[in-house]
Amino acid sequence: MNWMKHLSLYFVISALVIVPGIYSLIRYGLKPSIEFTGGSRLTLVSVTSSPDTVLQSFKDYTPQLEISDDTSLSIKSKEISQENTQKIIDGLKKENPDIKLTDFETIGPSLGQETIKKTTNALTIASLLLLAYISFAFKQLKYGICAILAMFHDTAVLLGIFSLLGHFWGVEIDLLFVTAVLTILSFSVHDTIVVYDRIRELSHKIKNVDYVTLVNQAVTETMTRSLNNSLTIIFMLLAMFLMGGETTKYFSLALLIGTVTGTYSSTFTAAPLLILWDRFSKKK
Question: What mean pLDDT comes out for the span 262-274?
Fold first, then answer.
């Protein structure tokens, strides 16, 4: 099958997903959790009052309800001392005699800024190392640059979707999300390298064929392997998202989105970018 005759279509599909996400990132940004903004998170158990009543007690600290079940609540708020938290809980004991604080953490704004800085540095270092390694391994700069562009494609899709989720459904990004992004970067590049390696092998075996035919044959030969590998991961992540706990729900969703886009980009973004590079080089 001639996969590479639809180059324009693949870039249009990518644009239809990325452009709304980029617009959302520019206008709304991402909704960070307290790991990035600073604040306090606490868990109360043996709660008999309504969640609204409990939140009203913390109104001076702009509380938000994170998780709620029959008798327990998880709340995040502006930074609050444990002493003041205990005073509020003592006031709630009139209606909730058995109420207890089981979990409490406070993250200062400076620590949140440090987390953002470290996250940015980690993404930058990972991108530069991957660019250098792929370019060295394939002995051509174009392989490294096209692989990194495909990786940024996957990152843009993931960030854009979570920006939209944050704006419309209040989904926050936390350190687990950062872990998911870094994991997806490695998966995306890994799948791309498989395709690129096949292109390199075929270039030594087959002579007197145009570059598009060479890339198309490499994509065809690696398509089944890529799909089989990705589907096993997708099924597992889908089960985690549907059946897993609240704390890992959006972590597994981020991995799921990244796996799908990584599988797509390795074939329909990274390989077409090589063809465009080749055409541009010949014209130049």
Answer: 93
**Is residue 246 pLDDT above 80, yes or no?**
no
Q: Which residue, of 107, 135, 166, is where some domain finishes? A: 107
We report the CATH number of the domain holding residue 121 as 1.20.1640.10
Please, which pLDDT band fits residue 245 given cuts at 50, 70 and 90? confident
Per-residue HEC secondary structure of the chain comes to: CCHHHHHHHHHHHHHHHHHHHHHHHHHCCCCECHHHHCEEEEEEECCCCCHHHHHHHCHHHCCEEEEECCCCEEEEECCCCHHHHHHHHHHHCCCCCCCEEEEEEEECHHHHHHHHHHHHHHHHHHHHHHHHHHHHHHCCHHHHHHHHHHHHHHHHHHHHHHHHHHHHHCCCECHHHHHHHHHHHHHHHHHHHHHHHHHHHHHHHCCCCCHHHHHHHHHHHHHHHHHHHHHHHHHHHHHHHHHCCHHHHHHHHHHHHHHHHHHHHHHHCHHHHHHHHHHHHHHC
Domain range for 100 is 39-107
- Look at residue 237 and tell me whether its pLDDT is greater than 90: yes
Q: Which residue among 90, 107, 124 closes a domain?
A: 107
**Over the stretch 191-234, which tens digit does the pLDDT of each residue have?**
899 999 999 999 888 888 899 999 999 999 999 988 998 999 99
Flag whether pLDDT at 72 surpasses 90: no
Do 54 and 87 sit in the same domain of this protein?
A: yes
